[in-house]
Amino acid sequence: MADLEKLRRNLESHGFGYRYFETPEEAADYLCASLHGRTVGIGGSITVEELGVYPRLAEDNQVFWHWKQDPAQARAQAGAAEVYLCSANGVSETGEIVNIDGTGNRLAASMYGKKKVYIIIGVNKVEPTLEQAIRRARDVAAPLNCRRFGLQTPCALAEEPRCFDCSHPQRICKGLLVFWRKMNGVDECEVVLINRKLGY
Ligand code: SF4
Domain 4-127+174-194 carries which CATH code? Predict the structure, then answer.
């Protein structure tokens, strides 16, 4: 059972915002009520997909998401947007946020030039320490994403998902980003924690 009070305290002391919701529906309502008339980028995220916010946000924001639009153009527009929504592969109770990326659009867009970044996570991604959050990103999130993409990487083909630190041409793990503190190039960075299993 994650210590969410410790997580909140440490995230806030590291300059991050923190909001907690019991359900994805409540979190989705909060995001949609918060964003009007903005340019909004979305990173590749099953969690954001599960929230179902894309069509709602698109009603009165300009939303760029490479899963719904021309990928190259949408990635560039999302990178230049005022607001960015993504998830994380792991978050530590000690207040650090971990993400692995292959293309790099999600890492780049989440760390610079934004008025606000929302990092939306299910409680399943909370780990006690930074080391365990990194381990989760490598041994749980990345292999499951490889399976989702139907790749032939060793982690995707193994019986139990785990990382083999492969050199496979389809390797999706090209960079790992740890937010120790809120980045100076982002005005606000808020963790939206949802008390459900969401994403990978
Ligand atoms: S490094 Fe290779 S084996 Fe490890 S999770 Fe990434 S793709 Fe899979």
Answer: 3.40.50.10420
Ligand 1 close to Cβ of residue 166 (< 6 A): yes
Work out the percent of the chain whose per-residue pLDDT is above 90: 98
Task: Pick the residue whose CA is nearest to atom 4 on ligand 1.
Answer: 163
The domain limits of the chain are: 4-127+174-194
**What single string gives the DSSP state of each residue in the chain?**
---HHHHHHHHHHTT-EEEEESSHHHHHHHHHHH-SS-EEEE-S-HHHHHHT-HHHHTTTSEEEETTTS-HHHHHHHHHHSSEEEE--SEEETTS-EEEEESSSHHHHHHHSSEEEEEEEEEGGGEESSHHHHHHHIIIIIHHHHHHHHT---HHHHSSS--------TT----EEEEESS--TTEEEEEEEEESS----
- Ligand 1 lined by 172 (C-beta under 6 Å): yes
Entry pTM: 0.96
Does the Cβ of 128 fall within 6 Å of ligand 1?
Answer: no
